[in-house]
């Protein structure tokens, strides 16, 4: 599956958000502003992604720490974070976490672990995906990052 089809599928099939962003390369945690998914509520009204950082363990397992804050003014009852690594347009790794009851004002970091990534040296882009389950439906926001972890 190529990257554009994957991202399009996230927005249509599951109302998922892929956080897009810096073209300049890398994982400095700057979200670069991103682009909103088509009409409807936006996940940025609920959750602010405040940064991210990649790490590779001695065992070769690759993970990403995603930091976020609940800015909704209330509890977020369900949220999904996901991240994918891409080599060109091909998704080579993905991981997801389901979070329940993110308290109002909460600031936290969630670790997503891809495991061993066979083609890590070919990775040239990645996404972070956020989905919020709310009375407004499933608001989302999409960011896409260029560069390798």
Largest sheet: 5 strands, antiparallel
Number of strands: 8
Give the name of the CATH superfamily: Immunoglobulins
Low-confidence stretches: 10-33
CATH class: Mainly Beta
Could you give the order of the helices and strands?
HEEEEEEEE
Helicity, in percent? under 10%
| CATH topology descriptor | Immunoglobulin-like
- Taken together, the total number of domains comes to 1
* CATH architectural arrangement: Sandwich
In DSSP terms (H or I, runs of 4 or more residues), the helix count works out at 1
The oligomeric state is: single chain
Explain the overall architecture.
This protein has one domain: Immunoglobulin-like (Sandwich), CATH 2.60.40.10. Helix content is 7%, strand content 49%. Strands 1, 4, 5, 7 and 8 form a five-stranded antiparallel β-sheet that branches. The chain has 149 residues and is mainly β. The two termini are 21 Å apart. The longest helix is centred in the first third of the chain and has 11 residues, at 3-13. The protein is built from one helix and eight strands; from the N terminus they run H-E-E-E-E-E-E-E-E. This is DUF4426 domain-containing protein.
């Amino acid at each position: 599956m190529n990257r554009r089809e994957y991202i399009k599928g996230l927005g249509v099939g599951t109302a998922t958000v892929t956080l897009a962003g810096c073209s300049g390369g890398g994982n400095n945690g700057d979200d670069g502003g991103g682009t909103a998914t088509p009409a409807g509520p936006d996940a940025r009204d609920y959750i602010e992604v405040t940064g991210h950082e990649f790490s590779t363990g001695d065992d070769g397992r690759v993970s990403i720490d995603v930091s976020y804050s609940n800015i909704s003014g209330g509890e977020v009852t369900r949220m999904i974070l996901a991240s994918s690594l891409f080599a060109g347009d091909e998704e080579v790794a993905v991981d997801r976490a389901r979070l329940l009851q993110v308290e109002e004002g909460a600031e936290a970091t969630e670790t997503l672990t891809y495991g061993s990534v066979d083609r890590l040296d070919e990775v040239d882009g990645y996404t972070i995906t956020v989905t919020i389950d709310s009375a407004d439906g499933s608001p989302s926001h999409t960011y896409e990052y260029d560069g390798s972890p």
